[in-house]
């Protein structure tokens, strides 16, 4: 019967040939250090959370995931604001390595002061935009391109189609009017958008024609 690994033993879970934690502890030599690292991560991420994070990666990457989680947890305790990335960025990566060694030995982690943790790491401003060679290229960078019209403009003016039953009135004659072909009666076009009506003479001629 195969014995349980040091990680499953401290977590009080069953261990088998397809154990997830066993390959993750191979880089730690001491059995006590393996148990200390597993307990520390289980308290930091939770037992279920730790197993989910490890199982999220492929088998050949799980040892690296376990080690990355250990460094991230130690860096977060040393610097609660910026974590391990802040320690690496500010040149204090040795503090994160010392915290990992303390975890493996079962010793507490020393946290830095709040002023040091809140200090912004030294950075240098960089412009990630494209640097053009031309002097006037900076103005063209913020220039908005003109959109092309959707419809093509015709080269000549569009003329209205001729209507065989109507004859347009002469321009410059005042109110617009339409004359029936073969008739002298003009149909006035009202300005308020109402129905068009015939002139007074034409309407009287229509009433007289209806009587006959």
From TrEMBL:
Domain of life according to the entry: Eukaryota
Region (Disordered), start-end ranges: 190-212
Swiss-Prot/TrEMBL GO biological process terms: regulation of gene expression
Signal peptide per UniProt: none
LOB domain mapped to chain residues: 3-109
PROSITE patterns in alphabetical order: LOB (PS50891)
InterPro entries: LOB
Stated family: Belongs to the LOB domain-containing protein family.
UniProt name for this protein: LOB domain-containing protein 41-like
Gene transcribed to yield this protein: LOC120108645
